Amino acid sequence: MNSINSLSHNYHHEESFPIMTLEAFILRQNEIQKRNDAWITKWWNHNILLKRVLKLADILEQYFGEKTDPIVYLKKLYFEENLSIESVFEKIKEIYIHLWETQHFYRFANSMQVFLRDILGWKLKNPSENKTTQIYKKRNQEKVVESIRERQNQRKVLFLSWYIKSSSLQSQNFDVLIFENFSFKYEKFIYLLENVFCISKKDFQLLQETKLWEKFISDRFSEICNELNIDLTLSHKDIKRVFEKFTP
């Protein structure tokens, strides 16, 4: 057996052991890298893959506020919470988006599938998850779209529930001259919160507990302003500024 085939054999031998923790993943990657420095091909770079997983660890620590093993977290989502690979992919993607990260863990659910199956050596729950036909990919895409739509509807219901409980619309209190005199949109929005929506500082801060994205919140209030014929389109930065300034 020549050297390349020997390395390939050793690599696939190690791949047969499922990896269930970040520590195990790092150890495996380091061992492969030590032996395979002369065998790095264009389609495989262990160092880049390791950086990808360590980046996920950093993202999860920012999101949860504590160190979180990314492999253990993926295992929890996939096996313990029994999510599909597509749902795991969307969950991780949402976390990256929440932190305004543009470089995601993976761009496509199929890549996540390969990572779990071929890199971590996991035995996938559903035999169909091993398929890569165009028909299966199309079905997966339809499931993802439906899942996203369902989560969007859930968020809208959550926001509407908060809005109904927290607001008391008093449009007659709106003074366009005062409104237009503000220099920044977040100031205009605070004026609306206090004088038109009649939402208290404490109730507005409760929005943060719902964990709705600031972009989602800005879109909903922009829609409400449009319905009231108030010329104000908010961005996520405006909402973030209001959370900073409009405190109890």
Explain what you see.
The chain is mainly α and 248 residues long. The chain is built from 12 helices and no strands. It has helices at 3-15, 22-35, 46-64, 70-80, 85-98, 109-119, 134-166, 176-181, 185-195, 201-209, 214-227, 236-245. Helix 2 packs antiparallel against helix 3 and helix 11 (214-227) crosses helix 12. It is elongated and about 75 Å long. It starts with a helix and ends with a helix. The model is unreliable at 1-15 (pLDDT under 50).
What's the layout of helices and strands?
Elements: H1 3-15, H2 22-35, H3 46-64, H4 70-80, H5 85-98, H6 109-119, H7 134-166, H8 176-181, H9 185-195, H10 201-209, H11 214-227, H12 236-245
Supply the key terms.
single chain; 248 residues; mainly alpha; 12 helices; 67% helix; disordered N terminus
How many individual β-strands?
A: 0
Helix content: 55-70%
The poorly predicted ranges are: 1-15
**Number of alpha- plus pi-helical segments:** 12
Q: What's the story with the biggest beta sheet?
A: none
Pattern of helices and strands: HHHHHHHHHHHH
Kindly report how far apart the N and C termini lie: 72 Å
Mean pLDDT: 80
Which overall shape is indicated by the principal axes computed on the Cα atoms?
elongated
Content-based structural category: mainly alpha
Beta-strand share of residues? under 5%
